[in-house]
């Protein structure tokens, strides 16, 4: 363990209350579904990446999207937070369309995501990386921030407390002052989850959170994901290859193949669906 | 260090006026280089753009002051009874605001469409911007240098064995304040957003950071710092005649400071600026006379580049720059 120092401000317990401090929820109180994706089509110069996909996610739900490589899972994420703009269909967030917004605006409205290939800021420390997640929850100007004065100072102190809570929650205390570029892969994945959590999202989109992890790291991550869902009451969309993980922890599963939806429903039901077996394992196994 | 050299240093130090004067000059030059370097660094850190138009922006800033203070009489014409230093400071503030707006406009028009292009291509765009801004500014300046109309003039005060111009005191205080403010700025919300954007724009957007606003802010700050440096360059004791068509080139002398300090470090820019300032001041006071005739005239101007080469050999990323992190 590098250094093995005890954190100074350890022991701050992360709770929904701490996370939600200083936050204002965007949008109406009442809505049908937290997120509703309606018949979206996305193509790049004639190549169909997403073809008529619809699904919805409710508050506190753990929804998984699975499918073979190139099935359009990550494109779905990029469409939801508006990195890509689907040509047809609509994406409703608490009943209001997200279409045409900028990604930073969707982030402000409560959508957070992680990336398939870790997209942390390698030279910044764990603490600073997670603090960037608080950006949307802070509003002091640059001048006040520079001279660290009054409101800006109080705001930063409060937000640092939230960050410490997240660090404690994800059990990465011993690395808090380390540049993330130097940390093991599994820990970096956790830091990325922490950075997304710091945004106090209402929906967390995790793009292959356990890809490339060993069994122990996978189990740890599964535990954190379930804790996020249960203790912090955050809805999650999980894109994952690891079938075992998905079937264990997801409430509902959407299977896509070549951009088309094949099946949607509870894990057991989806697992038994012949189309899913065909997409994943091929004809031969189906016959056998 | 050989004993001979120590003796020489001791002798020189015992003639205090020369040494102390060199220190004053070094601090002054160093402050100006640090301002130029920090302005360059802040733009590089946020947007990964090497801004070759920095010198042009410096000259433009100085020209704006000259024009506000001596030609247009702004804001002096609205406050006729105010003392000279008040209206001049007002002109400086207005010029800095104008510089910020120009910086933001340049970024929005010429560099925003280049987002995502190769860094080399973007650097070439800034070279083009340099030519455009420099030529327009020089056209406005005309063939004669334009004095900035500052109230300090060439007045000095004697402090024991050293003679300090009032401009140097003001410049040093302002430069240090500006650099300190920028160093703290990087720890603020916007500063952290800026560093995040530099690493990964897509991830920064997903954090709710408006990348466009980060770019605008960094160019505004960079242009203000460039203008400030340009103003200082055009005052006594540097160039008391004012801003002229060669002012823009002065800024290139800050490049060694940037490289020595490290392209992405504010502290590095400050230290690099001071190192280069002192080296240049030292060389122009001591590396002259019979013993050094073989160096020719104007050797002081080369010293920063020699230092830069030494640093590049030892630490290619600069004294304070970030070494690329690689995991094997």
- Specify the biggest β-sheet of chain A: 6 strands, mixed
Write down the Rg of chain A: 20 Å
Number of strands of chain A: 10
Q: Which segments of chain A are poorly predicted (pLDDT under 50) over 5 or more consecutive residues?
A: 1-9
**What portion of residues of chain B is helical?**
55-70%
Following the backbone from N to C, one meets helices and strands of chain B in this order, namely HHHHHEEHHHHHHHH
Question: How much of the residues of chain B is beta strand, in percent?
Answer: under 5%
Structural class of chain A, please? alpha/beta
User: Looking at CATH, which topology of chain A would you report?
Assistant: Rossmann fold
Could you give the order of the helices and strands of chain A?
HEEEHEEHEHHHHEHEHEEHH
Task: Kindly report the average pLDDT value of chain A.
Answer: 83
CATH architecture of chain A: 3-Layer(aba) Sandwich
Q: How many structurally independent domains of chain A?
A: 1
Look at the structure and name the CATH superfamily of chain A.
Answer: P-loop containing nucleotide triphosphate hydrolases
C-alpha Rg of chain B, in Å?
21 Å
Mass-distribution shape of chain A? globular
Helix count of chain A? 11
Assembly annotation:
heterodimer
In what order do the strands lie side by side in the largest sheet of chain B?
1-2
Helix content bin of chain A: 25-40%
Sum up the overall morphology of chain B in one term. globular
């Amino acid at each position: 363990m590098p250094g093995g120092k005890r954190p100074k401000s350890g022991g701050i317990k992360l709770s929904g209350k701490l996370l939600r401090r200083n936050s204002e929820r965007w949008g109406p109180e009442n809505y049908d579904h937290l997120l509703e994706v309606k018949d979206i089509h996305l193509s790049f110069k004639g190549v169909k990446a997403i073809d008529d996909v619809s699904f919805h996610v409710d508050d506190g739900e753990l929804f998984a999207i699975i499918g073979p490589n190139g099935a359009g899972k990550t494109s779905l994420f990029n469409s939801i937070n508006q990195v890509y703009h689907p040509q047809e269909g609509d994406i409703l967030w608490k009943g209001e369309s997200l279409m045409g917004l900028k990604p930073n605006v969707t982030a402000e409205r409560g959508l957070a995501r992680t990336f398939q290939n870790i997209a942390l800021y390698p030279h910044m420390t764990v603490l600073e990386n997670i603090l960037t997640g608080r950006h949307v929850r802070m509003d002091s100007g640059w001048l006040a921030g520079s001279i660290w004065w009054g409101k800006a100072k109080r705001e930063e102190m409060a937000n640092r407390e939230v960050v410490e809570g997240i660090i404690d929650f994800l059990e990465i205390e011993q690395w808090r002052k380390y540049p993330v570029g130097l940390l093991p892969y599994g820990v970096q994945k956790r830091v990325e989850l922490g950075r997304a959590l710091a945004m106090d999202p209402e929906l967390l989109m995790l793009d292959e959170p356990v890809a490339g992890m060993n069994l122990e790291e996978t189990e740890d991550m599964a535990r954190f994901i379930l804790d996020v869902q249960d203790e912090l009451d955050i809805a999650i969309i999980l894109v994952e290859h690891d079938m075992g993980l998905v079937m264990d922890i997801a409430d509902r599963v959407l299977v896509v193949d070549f951009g088309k939806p094949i099946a949607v429903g509870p894990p057991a039901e989806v697992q038994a669906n012949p189309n899913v077996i065909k997409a994943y394992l091929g004809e031969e196994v189906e016959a056998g | 260090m050989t004993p001979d050299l120590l003796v020489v240093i001791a002798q020189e130090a015992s003639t205090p006026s020369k040494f102390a004067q060199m220190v004053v000059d070094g601090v002054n030059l160093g402050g100006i280089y640090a301002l130029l370097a920090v302005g360059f660094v802040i733009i590089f850190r946020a947007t990964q753009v090497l801004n070759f138009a920095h010198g042009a922006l410096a000259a433009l800033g100085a020209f704006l002051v000259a024009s506000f203070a001596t030609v247009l009489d702004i804001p002096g014409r609205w406050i006729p009874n105010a003392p000279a230093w008040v209206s001049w400071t007002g002109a400086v503030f207005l010029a800095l605001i104008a510089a910020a707006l120009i910086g933001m406009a340049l970024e929005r028009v010429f560099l925003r469409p280049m987002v995502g292009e190769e860094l080399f291509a973007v650097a070439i765009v800034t070279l083009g911007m340099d030519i455009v801004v420099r030529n327009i500014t020089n056209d406005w300046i005309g063939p004669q240098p334009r004095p900035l109309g500052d109230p300090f003039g060439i007045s000095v005060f004697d402090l024991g064995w050293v003679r300090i111009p009032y401009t140097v005191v003001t410049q040093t205080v302002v430069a240090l304040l500006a650099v300190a403010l920028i160093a703290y700025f990087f720890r603020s919300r916007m500063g952290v957003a800026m560093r995040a954007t530099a690493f990964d724009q897509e991830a920064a957007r997903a954090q709710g950071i408006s990348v466009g606003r980060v770019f605008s802010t960094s160019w505004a700050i960079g242009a203000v710092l460039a203008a400030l440096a340009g103003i200082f360059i055009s005052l006594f004791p540097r160039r008391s005649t004012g801003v002229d068509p060669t002012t823009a080139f002065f800024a290139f002398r800050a490049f060694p400071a940037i490289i020595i300090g490290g392209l992405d470090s504010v502290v590095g820019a400050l230290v690099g600026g001071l190192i280069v300032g002192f080296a240049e001041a030292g060389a122009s006071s001591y590396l002259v006379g019979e013993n050094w005739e073989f160096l020719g005239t104007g050797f002081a101007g080369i010293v920063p580049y020699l230092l830069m080469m030494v640093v590049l050999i030892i630490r290619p990323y600069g004294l304070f720059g970030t070494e690329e992190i690689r995991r094997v």
